[in-house]
Amino acid sequence: MEAARFINQIQIPKNPNRRFSRPPLDFPRIIRASSSSTSQEPKSYRGPKPSKNLVADFVSRNDDSVRSLPIYVGGASLLAVLFNRAVSGIAPVADASSSQSRADLLALGLAVTNLLTGLVWLSIRPKTITPVEPEGVDCKVLEPNLPASILSELLWAWESIKVATCCKSLVIVYNGICLLQIGMAAKSPDANKAVLVNTDKLMTGSVYQGVFKSKAQSYLANLSLYPGRSELPFLPPNTQAVILQPLGDKGIAVIGGNTIRGFTSSDQAWISSIGEKLDATLGRCFLDSDEISQETDR
Amino acid sequence: MSIQICSFPLHPRFSLRACSQTAARSTRIFARTENESSRSDQQQLNLSVLRFTFGIPGLDESYLPRWIGYGFGSLILLNHFSASAPISESQLRSEALGLSLAAFSIALPYFGKFLKGSEVEKRSLPDEGEQVFVISSSIGDSLKEDLAWATYVLLRNTSTVAVMISIQGELCVRGYWNCPGQMPKAQLHDWFKRNVDEIGLADVKETLYFPQYAGSALSWDILPDGTRSVFVQPLVHNIDESEKMDGFLLVASTAGYAYSDKDRAWIGAMADKFRG
C-alpha cells in the first residue's frame, strides 16, 4: 500500500549549489543555561532557555522605519561630506589627487550604497492583504458510521489546516460520499442552515473532472476570477481562495480560505502531504469495508 | 526515492534580458520582474517588483553592502596610512565618517534579514553525521506508520535535516545525527534514549526555538555539527482533563532562522497528531 513507501530510507541529495555559510554576526545575546541537580524520573530539562534577540524583535516591530533608515543615513552622510569640505575651505572638487578627496570619495561611495539599499528595501515592502470574513454559517457535517480512527484523522486534518493557514472551510469527498463538511458554509436561502454538498453534482462538474484528470493539486488564488465557482455552491459566497486537493484516485478535498492568495507555497506542500496521508488511510478503510461487504454478500 | 528540497519561499524569476549568459564580468544592470512570496503569518504577501540587479546567477545581492563596506573601509584605512605629512583635521573627519558608514553597511544585511519579505537561507547537508532511521520496535504498526509518515513529511516540507519524535519514551529518529556509525538498530535506539534522558528533553513544558544555535553553548552532542536552528515541541496528553507532557518532537536544521511562524504552526499540527 502507499503508506509503506514512507518507511523506505530517504536519500537527501547533496545540494550542488551549496552556499558558503557565513558565521553569524556576534551581537550580544543573553543566554542563561539552567542546570538542575534533581535526578527524579524524568530528569529535569538541562539546557539553555531560548534567548531574546533584541535586534530581531526591534526590526520586526518597526519594519517601516527600519526600511527607510539607510536612506536617511546615506543622505545625511552626503551632506556631511559636503559640509566638511565647505567648513575646511577646500573646494568641492571630486578628483583623486589629494588624500582628502580620496577619503571623501570613498565616504560618498558608501553613502550612495546605503541610499540604494534603502531604496531596494522600500521597493520590496510586501503588500498586506486583509482577510475577508466569510459569509455563511458554521457547520459540522460528518458521515455517520465512520470508524473512530478515520474520524480522528479527519478532524486532525481540519484542525491542522485551520490553525496553520487561512482556511475557513473544508469539504472531503471520497468514493462518492461526502465524509466531512466543516467550518463555514454557505447559508441556504430558505432556512438558516448550511448548504450541503451534492456529491453527484460535484463529481460530474468540470472542477472535479479537471483535478481528477491532472491528479495534481489545483490552487485557485482568487476565486472570484474563476468561472467554475458555481460548482462549489456549498462554500461561502465570498470565499477568496480555494485549494482543490485530490485524494488519490477516489476523492477530493476542497479547502476554502479567507484571503486572496492566502495559501503560501509551503501551505500547498503541506496540504498535498496531508492529502496523500488521508488517501492512504481512507483507501485502507474503504478497501476493508468493501471486502467485508463482499464476504457478507456471499 | 528522491525528496524535494523545498526552499521557502519559492519564487520564479524571469529576467528580461535577451542576450545569453555571458555577463560574468559585465557590470551592466538588468531590470528584472520578480514575483516573490514571503513568510507571513496568515497571508501570502505576493509582490511584483521591478528590481535592479546584476544578472549574475548565484550572486546574492543582499550581501553587497557588506562587501562594499569591507572594501571601501579597507581602502579608507589604506589611504590614511599612505598619506604623507600631517593629516588635516578635515580629512580625519571624513575618514571617521567613512569608517562609520562602512560599519553600518556591513551590518545592513543582518538587519535586512529580519524584515518582512526577506529570503530564508537554504539548508545544506551537515559535514559529519550519519543518516539514520531508527524506530522503536515496541509500538504498534499503525503508530509506526504514522511516525514514519510524519518524519518523512517534516524532512520534506521544512528545511529540517534531523527529526526526532518521542512518545512516552519510545523514539523515532530520522535524518542526519551525530551518532556512532555501525551500530545495530536496537542499540542505536537505546543510545538515543540515553542521550535524550541526559538532556532531560522529556521534561520540556513549552516550545523551545533556538534560531541561532551555536554549537558551544548547548552541549547536545547528538545533533550534527553545523546545526543552526533547533525547535522542540512538547506533546500534550490529555487524561481526564489534566494535561501531562507525554513526549516531544524535535527538529533541527542547518539553516539559521529556519522555522518561521508558519513552519512552527505546521510542526505543532504534526505534534497534535500524536496526542493522547
Automatic annotation (TrEMBL), chain A:
GO CC: one term? chloroplast
Q: Which InterPro entries match?
A: CCB2/CCB4 (IPR021325), CCB4 (IPR044705)
Record's PANTHER family?
PROTEIN COFACTOR ASSEMBLY OF COMPLEX C SUBUNIT B CCB4, CHLOROPLASTIC, PTHR34943
Query: Matching Pfam families, A to Z?
Result: CCB2_CCB4
Instruction: List the protein's name.
Output: CCB4
GO biological process terms on file: cytochrome b6f complex assembly
Automatic annotation (TrEMBL), chain B:
**Native organism:** Brassica oleracea var. oleracea
Q: Which GO CC terms are listed, alphabetically?
A: chloroplast
Q: Name one GO biological process term.
A: cytochrome b6f complex assembly
**InterPro entries, per database record:** CCB2, CCB2/CCB4
The name under which this protein is listed is Protein COFACTOR ASSEMBLY OF COMPLEX C SUBUNIT B CCB2, chloroplastic
Q: Name one Pfam family in it.
A: CCB2_CCB4
